[in-house]
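User: I'm writing a short report section on ligand binding and want a predicted complex to refer to. Could you take this sequence and LLP and write out the structure as tokens? A short remark afterwards would be nice.
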Amino acid sequence: MLKGNFPVEKFGALPTPFYYYDTSLLRQTLDTVKAEAGRYGYQVHYAVKANANPRILQLIAQAGLGADCVSGGEVRAALQAGFPPSHIVYAGVGKADWEINLGLDEDIFCFNVESLAELEVIDQLAARKGKTARVALRINPDVDAHTHAKITTGRKENKFGINLGMLDGVLDELQQMAHVELIGIHCHVGSQITDMSVFRNLAIRVNEIQDELEQRGIRVQNLNFGGGLGIDYYHPNHLPIPAFDNYFAVFKQLLEQRPGQQIHFEPGRSIVAQCGSLISRVLYVKQGEIKQFAILDAGFTELIRPAMYDAYHRIENLTSEEPVELYDIVGPICESSDVFGKDVELNCARRGDLVALRSAGAYGEVMASQYNCRPLPPSYFSDDM
Ligand code: LLP
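Assistant: Sure. The structure tokens for the complex follow:
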């Protein structure tokens, strides 16, 4: 089977598990997203939550993207990596006072506000500083993302955003507030979306929302469509760069962009997923009565996506070309959910073999935990090898 391109001989000396990032693929992905968005003058803010490794953030900041943050910690990490405050947006349903104050002090571009209650607090905190906060209302557009239930965000029953039916009331209140300025509308409907009709529905829904706002005499300067573009977890070697051209074209075709209006996106996964792999060693091959297990030294502490979302990650044995066998590939954590894949085809595995869990650059390292008192995994970069 076709495997990824890894400096396996250099991996041999390194303790496992660790994250390995192909920085040249990351650069190519960044060049592509910039070129495709640039075609229409769209602005891209990388969603820091997907991967906040300082080196990765620096590369993305150097490429000239903005940053989409969901906590004060992410705002700090973005600033430290060199993202200019004027290109930082900050969303999240539960912004604490210190986080709002940090955004105000650093004069970030925009708070994406998720409730009236939050808007009131931002207004009060900005007033105390004698400032005006730029805000976009995060609207819950009730568009079904047809993706995993744990990662859809744009339905009425989700905790995110302001429901459409409540928008009028929020706008009434907002217009009374002296220390917030409405500069945009923000939407994000979900993640790992590969069906472009979801984005079509979103663009059409935002057209309707804009019409309604204009009936109230409100025209916003900025529209932010969030992130969500999916990647091909099954073929990381064939299609390492997502089809950003098709994605942006949907909005170009369907969105009724007003003159002077700026369009923003917040991709996370589509930028970083394919450049990262979790590299692990086979500790034991264990024969069960009906199954054969390959037990790795990485577990859900390093990559939680399979356990948490039943997510598929392609697994390759980097040190064996022997005939393929079927394995349940599991980690060492004391939980039966610590499984990376069942009945996985893998070149015959032996103790000490190096295995790559592919497409792990997004929501991999950043979601690692220290459960079972395990250390956090280190990271290595193709540039340095
Ligand atoms: N903007 C907002 C407001 C978001 O909530 C998210 C992701 C993004 C942008 C970036 O979405 P992306 O382009 O990466 O799909 N841990 C899950 C994914 C959670 C996504 C949360 N929000 C996973 O491992 O699949």
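A remark for your report: The pocket of LLP is lined by residues 47, 49-50, 68, 91, 151, 153, 188, 191-192, 226-229, 266-270, 305, 309, 362-363 (CB under 6 Å). The chain has a mean pLDDT of 95.
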